[in-house]
Cytochrome P450 (Streptomyces beihaiensis), 435 residues
Amino acid sequence: MATTSTEASTPEASTPEASTSEASATETECPYAPVDWPLSRRGDIVPAECARLREESPVARIRTLTGDDAWLVTSYALSRQVLEDKRFSLRDTALPGVPRQYALTIPPEVVNTMGNVNSAGLHQEVLRAFGPRSGPASAEWMRQRAHELVDAMAEEGAPVDLRRRFAEPYSAALICEVLGLPHEEGLRLMSGLDLGFLTSPVAFEGCTANWDKDFAFVLRHVRAARAEQRGLIRRLCDLRDDPERDGADLTDEMLAATVTSLFGAGVMSTYVFLLHAALTLMRHPEEMEQLRRRPEAMPYAVEELMRCTLSIGDGLPRIARCDVRVGDVLVRAGELVLVCVEGANHDPEHFAEPERFDLDRFGPGSSSDPHLSFGAGQHFCPASAISRVHAAEALAVLLERLPGLRLALPVDQLVWRTGNIKRVPERLPVLWDAG
């Protein structure tokens, strides 16, 4: 699952003293960068601003949708510095009065709940549930589900919308299986996620409506009889009621908020990345055929797809907890920093020919830097391992079962959703050769 602004967070160290050598430095004057933020929502072209800013001003001053000032970081080295430095906080982005990239469309306490997962003792259970080997959804389970969906696509016949007929139901079933929610409810739970992941300059009446509905649904499962529970929900309830520990800090509401957050972030990240991965392969038919003949190379291909695809639509946000120097810029305490993942992942200083889709870039013996699509440092996607397997199994089945898989329309006719934290194609209609 490629990283989003709802990444899981581990507890952060207390704020360091601001009176460091960095704080005593002279702040670099930096005018606003001449870019429109957010960048283009097209998911098939790397925004030209990435290369220009990386070359001219890798830490650039921008103005966000909310009218707040922020620093946009576009180089790999500086992006990694920000993501790994504990003085930059994800959790603080939910505090009142801080600069934002867009208005909060989930209750602020939800971000705090996810930020406190580790201190509440939930973190290890979340990691265990999303582990591809120890979790309930094995690679075999994913493969079987993918085959079932392709069976239905083949019966329907081409063209088929890969988003509605494959990526969404496949991802919803996976996350429901892990969390312990009914599979048949997965698509219904997804139906309102667009509200929760909308980017808007101001909060609006319906922005938390889908959260409230899904939270109430999950809360009923948290409060169900133990014999009716399964997956992560049951494990979290077992943890709450464990006589060996003090479970008073784990409330039904906290567990429900955790599960609801994991569903939304998990489903959105996995299905959108899968669409981008399929689109990239269809735009590189020779490499797709090569991968079809070398299925053992799929794990390395997935890493390259995670690097080069553009599913993350907005910068990863952090609030500086004290004055910190980033490159030539002194970021002051309380300022917002946005890490531009597509800029970092296409930095030629760290990835040779970054615009080239290279199946062997992360293969055996590779010396390539790791991509930053899962973040870095203390903030990371708890489903990073299962996400890799999720994509690998789905793509392997698509290539095996649908020879000649290709777009049913010119790529420049795809419609990309506006106002969303992800770059999402509204439809991805595909054709394939009859068997």
Q: What stands out?
A: The domain at 8-431 is CATH 1.10.630.10 (Cytochrome p450). The chain has one domain: 8-431.
